[in-house]
Amino acid sequence: MEGIIRQQAKTNIPGQLTRERTARLSPTPANPPRAVLDLRTGVGHWAIEFADRNPHSHVYGIDLVHMQEEWVPVNCQFLIDDLTKQDWHTPFHNIDIIHIGALGGDRQLLTCIMDGAYRCCAPGGVVEIWDTTIWLQESSEETGLHHFYHDMHDAYRRSGRFLDLPLLYSAEFGRHGFINVVDHVYNIPLDPKYPNPLARAIVKNWADGFESYSLELFDKELQKRCLDSLLDCATARQALRKGVKGFLQV
């Protein structure tokens, strides 16, 4: 079996960004895939786009809650399941492509998904996982984005998760028995004047989600008031608009 790491920004990238990342990052097996899993499917954009592009494939999107569109391609089906269960993979056999969305720093979830993916992946199949990390250049004058990510690291640590978990994905593939592991890292500058419009759109879309990443986490782990957390998110975005030396690592 072949393990391929693809890292990408944000699970619910809408419209054009989803089409771009499906076309650019998704593997192209020698034979058309018959069965495809999209784990941590979220709102299901990747599964829907892949099903549209591959009408002879049957695509299953799996997540803990149902939040997908009502109208989907006939070859796309969404299922509710808990991927932290050891037997989540039992209904599936000989899956040609397994696509895994961002894991939110959850090491236990990563282990459960890798175990199940190895058991249900077809010989010669492909497992693809994407996620993001951020690299910020050290500065004597830290920006609002620096402060925001210091708090994110602290909150993740207190919740038993790891903000930099994507850096361990290559080792986890090998530990679970996958071979031919390839790690693609795309460094997108945190510069509003960067000439690539797709890169700018990815950074903007990522920053637009700061509240969804942080509000509940900061309240539970850091006991921050909602208004304080909202201000932190706005200050971090303001720093991005001015330009920050660093990269969104995809």
Automatic annotation (TrEMBL):
CDD domains: AdoMet_MTases. InterPro entries: SAM-dependent_MTases_sf. Residues 1-32 are annotated as: Disordered. GO terms for molecular function: methyltransferase activity. It comes from the Eukaryota. Pfam families: Methyltransf_23 (PF13489). This is Methyltransferase domain-containing protein.
